[in-house]
Amino acid sequence: MKSTAEAWREKFRARGRARVIVACGVLLAGLSTAAGVIVIPRLADAMSGMDVSTMLIWLAVPVFIVAVAAEIVYLKHHGKPYDYRDSATSIAGGLGYQLLNIPWALAELAIFASVSSLVPWHLEGWVAWAVALVGVDFAYYWFHRAHHEIRVFWSVHVVHHSSESFNLTTALRTPWLVVTSLPCLVPLAL
Hints:
mainly alpha; 7 helices; 73% helix
């Protein structure tokens, strides 16, 4: 009898998976280019009150939906099944995470502001952006690695790896216990 890990590897290596990933990547690249050239300038006026991250999320959602639809069409065209229940579970998990993340983001903001006020220096301009870019990537690496190596954190993170199907909606499976990011992110406020 095969272990779950062996079965997962066989699924991932199955013929056609690479084609789905490449097709979705090409589709996303094309849609992103089209959005950058055609859509974003026209939406800039309509979304002038929004910050950049909110605008990018609003633009990413339709692109993601189109990519999932393309994945479904591709799989159906090649006679492969698409697990709608698994995708619905992933989407519901992602929505639950977003709902729980709203109050937590406010708490994080308060914590970061109070920690930031403790230091005697403050970075500005391009230096702040460069430090933030490297710092966030570094913090996220250790956050994610800790969630794979420390059992308590793994118990929170395993939800992300629990899907039976490896499709685009699996990216939405995020743990609902959002407070575990704080230890890795607090140093960034300094």
